[in-house]
Structure formats: structure tokens, C-alpha cells
Amino acid sequence: MKKIIMMVLIALFTVSVTAQDKQKKQKPEFTVDQIATIKTKKMTLLLDLNSQQQQQILAINKQKVAERKAKRATREKMKDSDKKPTSDELFERKNKQLDDMIAHKAEMKRILTPEQFETWQQNRKKKAKKIKQRKGKRLMQRKKTRRS
To answer: I want to staple 30 with a disulfide (CB 3.0 to 4.6 A). Which of 26, 34, 85, 144 is the partner?
Structure first.
């Protein structure tokens, strides 16, 4: 009898802990303007931007954030419908993404001074490295859970 009660208590404790973890992971939903403002202020701190540069980068950030939100909504719709993109669609998506990255880099090069641009590029490389590491950790965790 004691064993059964102990097992039930352990099961309830486990369920309550996992439920709390899911609640903590939910992020607040910011507007496009709020996200763009935060990104611009972070860049101002990093690169010591003047007011004209801040205004230009704020406009770029607003556009980028709006595009990112639209793409996320499209991906969610595709995920819900269980529709897989064709190889041509994937190619077009990747091609457009790379074109956008090239245009963004050229725009930033036009706005920033050479020193600021160099700092911005180095910072982007550091962030990309961190993202790649996190992505690798997630893949390893998924593989471990699949084996179990």
C-alpha cells in the first residue's frame, strides 16, 4: 500500500514539474515596433550609432521583423496542414533568403562607418556560432529521446 501511494505521489510531482516548465518557456508576444526598437537600441549600444543611423536602422529592422513574422505565420500554416514544400519551393525560399541577406549587408555597409560595419560583422559571426551550437545540442537531445 505504501509503495502504491509513493508511486502516485512521484507521478503527480513529475507531472506538476513538467507543466511548470512548459509555462516558463512561453515568451511574451511583442509588436513589430517593439522588437525593432529593442534591436536598434542594442545595435546603438554595440556600435555607438548616431541619431541618423538609428533612424535608418530602425526602419530596416521594422521591415525585417515584419517579414520574419509573416514567414513564421506561413510556416505555422504549412506545419498545421502537414503539407511538405517541394524541392523547387525550398530552392526558391533559400535563394530569396540569400538575396535578402546580400541586400541587408549592402544596406548596412552603406549606413555604417567602416569600423562600425566590421564590429557588426564580427558580432553576427559570434551570434551565428552560438545558434549553430544550440542547434547541434537540440539535435543531440532529439536523438537521445528517440532512442529511449
So the answer is: 34
Taking a C-beta distance cutoff of 8 angstroms, is the pair 138, 130 a contact?
A: no
Please give the distance of CA 133 from its chain centroid, rounded to a whole number.
Answer: 14
Residues 83, 75: Cα–Cα separation, whole Å: 10
Evaluate if residue 118 carries a pLDDT over 80. yes
pTM of the full structure: 0.70
CA-CA distance, 117 to 125, in Å (whole number)? 12
* Number of domains into which the chain is organized: 1
CA gap 31, 16 in Å, rounded: 32
Q: Hey, what's the cell of 87? A: 524541392
144 domain-assigned: no
Between these two residues, 118 and 24, which has the higher pLDDT value?
118
Whether 105 contacts 51, CB under 8 Å = no
In a domain, 132, yes or no: no
CA pair distance 43, 129, nearest whole angstrom: 18
